[in-house]
Amino acid sequence: MINKRKKLSRYRGSHTHGGGAKKKRRGSGHRGGFGMAGSGKRADHKKQMVFKLYGKNYFGKHGFKIHPKKIKIKIINLEYLERNLNLYLNKNLAKKENDFYIVNLTELGYDKLLGSGNINNKYKIIGKVSSKAKSKIEELNGIVEEI
Description:
The chain is α/β, with parallel strands linked by helices.
């Protein structure tokens, strides 16, 4: 019996180990990709084989996911209200009774009043108000009516 050498030792010193050009055995691109690449999703080559192995639901998307809609709350700050008070009075969106400026937030088109900024006038606010805004309004003896 002839003592046959292993392939690996026979390829020692052959530079490419029988793989042809240097580039040929470099990556998975030479063989068409990894794993199930080339199974014929677009060209029907091996689709039937895939169906037999993995079933009819191997390809495509299945089911659906409902993402909750994000509700945006329209907000206004005390500072902005103070700056545009004359504009609201001219457009009859705010009223002045005695010392109070009466502002209805829903009539202005806002959902909530936040407490950023400083105020100098007394307000009677009708609508949702943050705790910081409420404390600033009540410091000047203002009134907050939450809906």
